[in-house]
Design brief:
seven-stranded mixed sheet, alpha/beta, globular
Length: about 400
């Protein structure tokens, strides 16, 4: 056994989160793509079967009340809240991340008030955020200005209405300074909107602590909610009575069953709802969140950093010099829970890694991306992945 393999065994033996792996359906594959789709929690199939067979199959329409379907968006939002540093009553679950970005941005511009006609958007953002921001800008009569997160400060002005930023860059894994950037946006009198897709469930976010205005995120990555599981929208409590959604559906009406022709928004986080929620996937998500029972986000973050540190060390030891290059920051304060390696033939390399039982993903044109989900990834997985990578790129 190599020195690194021995260290991996020692680290796994000392890992306080190691037992959580048993809560998931896993095999002998090293799964490092939980930043795209989280693994299946083992108890979810049974819970979904109950939803389908009993709640839908037997109770049918009664389940909206008797099985708690109607209140699921807020109830599940309150389950997510502690994972992103929010008190209850500020998160509603439903729709996709894209739809929630649209709701948040348009509502942010409306809250910003007269004379503010510019939206800043992360120039390196995931494409759909950019597409949605462009549409929101056209709808609200704003100018859209893409800027690098490092340039947000100088770009802010008394024209800025809203700023849409990613907490973690989806390609590089760079973690941005949410507290400092939020404070800068507020100092300019604008509204901060954060995309938490690559941070929620991997590291502390602190939405309430840092005064974030609005935030969105998906649930199928580090929250393990399943493919296409519904996203969520956070609206800070003191802003909820001013949240003017561009999608005023019947589910967010003050009297949803009043069937009135005029729209009157409900109070609280319910304002973020639109239409009838996707109950099957929503309740699968609710079941999946049980894996977080008794788990500290701070402990998850500590393990995440240890895993990514160890992976970078193993990659340096196992891969030929100059063959791959990390584009993920080395500094802990700037690193999410993934490592991105630049490799000129990355697409082919990832195919061969997957064939050998190491699953990450490829991002055009030359990025090998590896996500580390501390709930089920161990240090032996990390050593094996780096060793197979070294053998693959040397071959």
């Amino acid at each position: 056994m190599s020195e690194l393999a021995s260290r991996a065994s020692e680290l796994d033996a000392a890992d306080e989160l190691a037992g959580l792996r048993e809560r998931f359906v896993l095999d002998d594959v090293v799964y490092l793509d939980g930043n795209s789709l989280g693994a299946l929690p083992a108890h979810v199939p049974g819970r979904v079967e109950d939803v389908v067979r009993r709640q839908w199959g037997e109770l049918r329409i009664r389940s909206w009340d008797e099985s708690g379907w109607w209140t699921a968006p807020e109830r599940i939002g309150d389950r997510i809240a502690p994972l992103v540093g929010a008190a209850a009553g500020q998160i509603v679950v439903g729709d996709s991340t894209s739809v929630n970005v649209f709701k948040a941005l348009v509502a942010a511009v409306r809250m910003a008030g007269e004379g503010r006609d510019e939206i800043l958007v992360d120039a390196t953002t995931f494409p759909t955020d950019g597409y949605i921001a462009e549409s929101a800008a056209r709808m609200t009569g704003c100018t859209l200005r893409p800027v690098a997160p490092a340039e947000v400060g100088p770009a802010l002005s008394d024209r800025t209405a809203a700023v849409l930023l990613n907490h973690v860059d989806y390609r590089t894994g760079r973690l941005y300074d949410l507290p400092a950037l939020t404070a800068a946006v507020h100092a300019a009198g604008a509204i901060a909107v954060w995309d938490l897709c690559h941070s929620a469930g991997a590291l502390p976010v602190g939405l309430d602590e840092h005064g974030v205005d609005l935030a969105v995120g998906c649930t199928y990555k580090y929250l393990n909610g399943g493919p296409g599981s519904p996203a969520y929208l956070y609206v800070r409590r003191d802003l909820q009575d001013r949240f003017d959604s561009p999608l005023p559906g019947w589910n967010s009406h003050a009297e949803p069953f009043g069937m009135r022709p005029g729209y009157e928004p409900a109070s609280g986080a319910v304002r973020g709802r639109v239409g009838t929620p996707d109950i099957l996937s929503m309740l699968a998500l609710e079941a999946a969140l049980d894996v977080w029972d008794g788990v500290s986000v701070e402990a998850v973050r500590a393990k995440s950093l240890a895993l990514t540190d160890f992976f970078l060390e193993c990659v340096a030891a196992y891969t030929p010099a100059g063959r791959v290059e990390s584009v993920t920051p080395a500094a802990h304060a700037e690193r999410g829970s993934q490592v991105a390696l630049r490799c000129h033939d990355a697409g082919d390399v990832m195919k061969r890694l997957i064939e050998r039982g190491v699953v990450g993903d490829f991002r055009h044109p030359d990025i090998l991306r590896f996500g580390f989900t501390p709930l089920y990834v161990g240090f032996a997985d990390v050593e094996r992945a780096a060793r197979v990578l070294g053998e693959t790129v040397a071959g």
